[in-house]
Amino acid sequence: QVQLVESGGGLVQAGGSLRLSCAASGRTFSTYHMGWFRQAPGNEREFVAAISWSGGSTYYTDSVKGRFTISRDNAKNTVYLEMNSLKPEDTAVYYCAADLQRWRAVTTTLDEYDYWGQGTQVTVSS
Q1: For 51-100, what is each residue's pLDDT tens digit?
Q2: In terms of CB atoms within 10 Å, which of 17, 72, 100, 107 comes out highest?
Q3: What are the angstrom distances between the C-alpha of 106 and each of 16, 26, 86?
């Protein structure tokens, strides 16, 4: 069992920055991959970024490349999403998720994540 709690969301102007955190508890944090997803009103939940269990591999959706950075601190059981140059289209509820299948490559597929946080709202005003 894994519990995930996101924090750091809020209201920011376009061009601004936010740093999301996701604190994990339960199973040993360094044994599973982590991902960030987001869901805007009326839209399906979509992949944003992911990081391998060791932190050695990261993946991003094209729309956030060069603006967002995913990282993890296994000593603090926390994964981060640093978001810069925010745009109004980044407005969404952001979720972190855990993929316990360490044996396989990091996935961007929503259904392959095992545990989810409750989400944190990010609103970017124009």
Answers
A1: 999 999 999 999 999 999 999 999 999 999 999 999 999 999 999 999 99
A2: 72
A3: 29, 20, 25
- Would you say how long the chain is, in residues? 126
DSSP the chain: -EEEEEE--EEEETT--EEEEEEEEES-GGGSEEEEEEE-TTS--EEEEEE-TTS--EEE-GGGTTTEEEEEETTTTEEEEEE-S--GGG-EEEEEEEE--TTS-----GGG--EE---EEEEEE-
84: its two tokens: 């810069």
Six token digits for residue 97 = 């998720």
Q: Mean pLDDT of all residues in the chain? A: 96
Contacts of 94 (CB under 8 A, 6+ apart): 6, 9, 20, 36, 37, 38, 48, 81, 119, 120, 121, 122
Q: What is the per-residue pLDDT across 10-20, written as a single tens digit (0 to 9) for each?
A: 999 999 999 99
Q: In the predicted model, is pLDDT for residue 119 greater than 90?
A: yes
